[in-house]
């Protein structure tokens, strides 16, 4: 599989536990891929050194870069990466997401892997502005790493928007499922598909006395189940591994992910024409921080980054 051979790993300068690097090595072992450990650094005290000469400022900046390079090489040495090539790249810049996405575009990386921060007090994941910018604007798949392991014969959950006749929705559903199939063969996981559908609109039930809410719900459920089964059969995915539930996408995806103890959730993110159910800021942004497993965010075919 050629898909994930060129891996860009975002190094977190604020922690010693580089879980993105560990996950990158795990993936590279499956794909025989090559990793670039990428670190952006910037010290705002540098802005206060304008009284120094240009040479002195450059020497100060280079000293910081050299210090972080030594630290990065030590972090890499601590992790077992036998037979895996790990290159290093450190760039001085105060807007990390711009340099990350620029490197993806100019060097044609297959995937970006980045760790997430956990708030010790609340035991919840905190996403930084860099995380959201990468999710919204990076043209290649983005894997956000949490604490969950990738066990053999684990479960991989793919969030779809089934039941729509929109061609772009269907194309993204197909792309997400194909991605799940590729990954499942790599990491030896079982594929599950999940889809949510809206419940009875409360205002209609109140305003129209003869409106039959039960009949409406049954019709919606059958419509989405039929569409899901058709999709699953197309890709030869067992119907027992499909999940169609009433509710908000973020609630349903979280519920099913916990129920099957998913190691990875795959979902679609913003498209050029704004796919409503796969829109960053709508579904994905609301669900990602509620999951306790890794998340792989994928753009629709033809997506062009605004930073391109």
Kindly describe this structure.
41% of the residues lie in helices and 20% in strands. The strands form two sheets. The chain has a ten-stranded mixed β-sheet with strand order 3-2-1-4-7-12-11-8-9-10, with helices on both faces. A two-stranded antiparallel ribbon has the order 5-6. It is elongated. The chain folds into two domains: 1-147, Rossmann fold, CATH 3.40.50; 148-308, Rossmann fold (3-Layer(aba) Sandwich), CATH 3.40.50.12370. It has nine helices and twelve strands. The model is unreliable at 271-281 (pLDDT under 50). The two termini are 27 Å apart. It has 308 residues and is α/β, with parallel strands linked by helices.
Please tag this protein with its features.
308 residues, alpha/beta, Rossmann fold, 2 domains, 10-stranded mixed sheet, two-stranded antiparallel ribbon, 41% helix
Mean pLDDT: 85
How large, in whole angstroms, is the Cα Rg? Answer: 22 Å
Q: Detail the poorly predicted runs.
A: 271-281
- The CATH class designation of the largest domain is Alpha Beta
In which order are the strands of the major sheet placed?
3-2-1-4-7-12-11-8-9-10
The coarse overall form would be: elongated
The CATH topology of the largest domain turns out to be: Rossmann fold
Number of helices: 9
Helical amount: 40-55%
Secondary-structure class: alpha/beta
* Structural domain tally: 2
* Secondary-structure element string: EHEHEHEEEHEEHEHHEHEHE
Number of strands: 12
N- and C-termini, Cα separation: 27 Å
How much strand content do the residues show? Answer: 15-25%
């Amino acid at each position: 599989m050629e898909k994930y051979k060129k891996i860009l790993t975002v190094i977190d300068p604020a922690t010693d536990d580089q879980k993105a690097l560990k996950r990158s090595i795990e993936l590279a072992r499956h794909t025989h891929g090559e990793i670039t450990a990428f670190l952006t650094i910037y010290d705002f005290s540098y802005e206060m050194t304008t009284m120094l000469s240009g040479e002195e400022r450059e020497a100060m900046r280079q000293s910081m870069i050299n210090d972080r390079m030594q630290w990065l090489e030590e972090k890499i040495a601590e992790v077992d990466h036998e037979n895996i090539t790990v290159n290093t790249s450190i760039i001085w810049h105060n807007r990390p997401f711009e340099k990350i996405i620029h490197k993806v575009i100019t060097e044609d990386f297959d995937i970006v892997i980045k760790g997430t921060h956990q708030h010790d007090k609340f035991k919840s994941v905190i996403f930084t502005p860099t995380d959201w910018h990468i999710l919204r604007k990076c043209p290649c798949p983005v894997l956000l790493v949490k604490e969950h392991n990738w066990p053999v014969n684990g479960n991989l959950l793919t969030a779809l928007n089934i039941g729509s006749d929109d061609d772009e929705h269907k194309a993204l559903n197909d792309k997400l499922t194909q991605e799940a199939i590729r990954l499942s063969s790599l990491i030896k996981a079982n594929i599950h598909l999940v889809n949510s559908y809206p419940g009875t609109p409360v205002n209609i039930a109140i305003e129209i006395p003869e409106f039959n809410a039960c009949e409406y719900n049954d019709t919606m459920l059958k419509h989405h189940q039929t569409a899901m089964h058709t999709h699953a059969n197309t890709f030869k995915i067992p119907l027992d591994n499909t999940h169609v539930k009433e509710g908000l996408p973020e609630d349903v995806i979280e519920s099913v992910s916990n129920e099957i103890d998913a190691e990875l959730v795959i979902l679609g993110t913003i498209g050029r024409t704004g796919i409503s159910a796969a829109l960053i800021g709508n579904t994905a942004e609301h669900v990602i921080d509620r999951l306790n497993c890794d998340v792989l965010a994928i753009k629709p075919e033809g997506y062009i980054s605004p930073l391109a």
